[in-house]
Fold:
Amino acid sequence: MEDKNIIRVLNKVDKSILLLLEGSDKFSDEIELSTALDRSSVINSGRKMLSLGLIKIEGIEEAQFILTKNGEVYLKEGLPEYRIFNFIKNNVTVTYSQLYNMGMDKNEITAAIGYLKKSGVLLEEKGKLSVDTKMESRLENRNKILYAVYKGLIKETEDLTDLLRRGIIENISKVREKFSITPLGNKIIKDSEFNEDLIDKLSKDNIKNWEGLKFREYADNPEILSSLSGKLNIKTKFSSFIKDVMISMGFKEMHSNYVESVFWNFDVMMFRQDHPDRDIQDTVYLNGGKANVPKDILTNVKNVYEKGFKESKYSESIGYRRKFDISNSGTLIMRGHTTATTFRYIHDIISKNKEKPAKFFSIDKSFRNETMDSTHLLELYQIEGMVYDDNLTVADLIGYIKQFYGKIGIEKIRLKPTYNPYTEPSLEIQAFSPKLNRWIELGNSGVFRPETLRPFGIKKNIVAWGFGMERMLNLKLGMGDIRDLYGAYTDIDLLRDTDSAKIFSEI
Ligand code: PHE
Structure:
């Protein structure tokens, strides 16, 4: 791109940041401080100048350590190894049981002894323990680490692994973005046009009296447009592609809200109360507020839960034979699975049109209170589907699953029996991830148990599933770590440039 064209699309913010970088590299938070710009202006301008090739941005992880609750206690009382050292020093020799009676946590004592032995401070002879007093200063220094962490003065060179592992200190490292100017950036700054004071924002006044005024240009040439224009994120493209697939299979889309009640997320699906069933998904509970719950269905759910039902010799259920407590049903949560939406549609549509077959799907967010790792996200898109018709069996379910994954282009799948409180049988869908070199779970499915459908007066079968969208996309992209698709550390060029034709070509 020609220099002049670049200069013409730079606004005042961009220019001031570029000038600041001329002297030295700067972290984005430093730029915020010295320019009084807000964070998003700095980040936006940074991204823009990055795509114009004027600056480079590098993420630099900075470790930052803090004391845990335990660490705070030890800051006052001394590290266990320090206390044990002094205790032995004062008593010359001691036994293990004396140490374990010092009133500290057993695991901590064991860990401290481990440290003392490893570093050659603790000597043992026939069950008698003594210490090498020449090592005193080493222990004092170690104890001082806590104070340094407390004061935020800790150096990364210090060996902290042991203290981290024992939960005495915690790493809350963060990534800072370092901006540096490129040779092109330096060249642009020196251009005489760079310092021209152009009008950045149009006002009523300068539109009226535009003659003789100099305005900043808007990106109107294709070269600039293609480097600056927004593009659809790969996840958005993928989800609309999946929508097309579901629609081509004859499904209609369902919609509902992120905030859900315990009733629709758990109760209607016969998740047992006060039972680990409810921990299958780590739920995000919300404070305050209560949802309205349909009274008639609540009563039916309670009856089936407590007593089951008997319809004929072949159709009966004994229920859980426990009391169902209705007081939590209205509690608000972030929905943990989009199956809650499925049950809303069972209530709103299917139970009111029992004669009509129905096929519904949704692609929507669910929320889990989990720790993020290479295959887990806290917010994930689920592809939910259900089919209501006469005489459906697990064979139909398998047929739909195979057809769907076939259309997506994931052929190597396998099904494994699993457990859901609300389906029987239940099948987990697994696919092989070449990157992780293992089978990963892609989704879960089943035939809804009669207990979940009788409260709505439904006697036919419903087959249903929930697939994780990000894992599927990850697999399609040949990536191993799901975090590469989300959050601050994703590769922006990948998200911009991944050629959708390539990913969807097999389809
Ligand atoms: N709700 C299940 C999950 O979140 C998926 C599922 C949907 C299973 C419908 C069976 C039937 O994993």
In short: Residues 337, 339, 420, 423, 444-446, 464-466 surround phenylalanine (CB under 6 Å). The chain is about 40% helix and 20% strand. The domain at 3-64+174-228 is CATH 1.10.10.10 (Arc Repressor Mutant, subunit A).
